Amino acid sequence: MDLSHGHTGSRRSWAEPYKIKMVEHLRMTTHEERVRAMAEAGFNTFLLPSSEVYIDLLTDSGTSAMSDRQWAGIMLGDEAYAGSRNYFHLEDAVHSHYGYKHLIPTHQGRGAEHLLSQICIKSGDVVPGNMYFTTTKHHQELAGGTFRDVIIDEAHDPQSTFPFKGNVCLQKLSRLIEEVGAERIPYLSLETNVNMAGGQPCSLENIRETCALCHEHGIAVFLDATRAVENAYFIKHRESGYEDKTISEILLEVCSYTDGCTMSAKKDSLVNIGGFLALNDDHLAEEARNLVVVYEGLHTYGGMAGRDMEAMAIGIGESVQYDHIHARIGQVEYLGNRLIEAGVPIVQPIGGHGIFLDAARFLPDIPREQFPAQALSAALYVESGVRAMERGAVSVGRDHETGENIYPKLELVRLTIPRRVYTQAHMDVVVESIVELHREPERVVGLEMTYEPKHLRFFQARFAPVVGAEVLRRSGQSEPAACG
After folding, report:
1. The total number of structural domains that make up the chain
2. Whether residue 133 lies in the annotated active site
3. Active site annotation includes 224
């Protein structure tokens, strides 16, 4: 990747397009402290207190650093209960950059998913999508629907280097329409930069063809636009004919083919909280405005403070600036390329928001029943203080009919990079920690689940080493009392 920004002469080093005006101290814990913290957290990185984490790559959701302009916007918050001026600023930003007619703000993305599911899905419906996402699928199921995966086969192969692994397979979609009937499909859920596939983008050609097929059968298409800006960047660099288009132009074209979107603004839009549902249909928008009052707040704030809406409006404008998105994805590529050079198995091609370790290849001797991705994320924290998360069997959950665990083809550990937060030196520390574990995979021991919550188990489940305290002794440490 050429990060020279068009400079002539010799290639220049990569650098962030910003300077640091404020710092937050990071405390490096000891190995003994991390062993104790992980045992107390039930070997689930979600249950670790952030004060015990050195480099936090758990998620890019709400963890971005806001700009000076966004912080200045915070001071302009109009906290009127109804008709806040910040709502209208946000509405203008969404119209300008996403192009949709109606805006319904929500507290975050899952609030928008809930509204969309409730107003569109009835019991027995089938909702196709290009690979599931945990909360999206869960809301669809709670509304009475069933998710069906129609992503291309390459998305399930971590070693495939196909450039648009987020694409919908039109043959799978056509067969599904023929199988269940268009009348049972309320909409297709189209995710950009597909998270569970490793942050893999969709091509504009595929988006256009997918929407045309759905609309031909009277099926709506709703975009999960959470990382649509990152997807637009990949279109610019990987799809012929878009080299000279701006990120804004590509983003608008992506959205123009769809009927609306759900949005977690905690990702692309560079804020710590907030989201929205955007729609073109007047009737659906009216239903959503009625329902948002029940679950979120008045339709002109939807669970957000005025200051948060102002920061989001500014963040949307910043997100489509080329120097920002170029450096954001450049940092992810830097981390990924260093791991590839070291022989660490990761999902390829490198995605937009993080690096996904292929835990099945990383730990071939740990059976799937012992949750290798969960085990690897726990071991990485104990080794280095780096917090990652599992994206495999624990995240997928159980078969609703049989109650058995589902073991997907992808058993991954996600290292998600917050925007404008960490430096290249932090990425080097992450690489060194992962490489050391890769050289000695026997230090990672499989896990068994000791507590399983009813919903979205990966957030709160607890685990224990299959061989008890042996997981601690293999790393040369004595057994702490907290191991249980």
Report:
1. 2
2. yes
3. yes
Residue of 27, 68, 81, 439 with catalytic role: 81
pLDDT in tens, 111-163: 999 999 999 999 999 999 999 888 899 999 999 999 999 999 999 999 999 99
Q: Which of 149, 224, 308, 358 is catalytic?
A: 224
- pTM of the predicted model, to two decimals? 0.91
Residue 87 sits in the same domain as residue 41: no
Q: Would you tell me how many other CB atoms lie within 10 Å of the CB of residue 26? A: 12
Catalytic residue among 43, 54, 133, 371: 133
* Mean pLDDT of the residues in the chain: 92
Q: Which of 267, 289, 420, 457 is catalytic?
A: 267
Q: How far apart are CA 66 and CA 8, in angstroms?
A: 32
**Within a domain: 341:** yes
CATH number, domain with residue 327 = 3.90.1150.10
Cα–Cα distance measured from residue 440 to residue 443, given in angstroms and rounded to the nearest whole number:
6
Could you tell me the pLDDT band of residue 13, with boundaries at 50, 70 and 90?
low
Look up the domain containing 36 and give its range: 31-60+322-483
- Give me the phi and psi of 355, to 5 degrees please: -110, 135
* Final residue before a domain boundary, out of 290, 319, 348: 319
**Does 134 qualify as catalytic in the annotation?**
yes
In a domain, 21, yes or no: no
**357 domain residue, yes or no:** yes
Catalytic residue among 236, 266, 391, 457: 391
**Of the candidates 328, 323, 326, the residue with the CA atom closest to the CA atom of residue 353:** 328
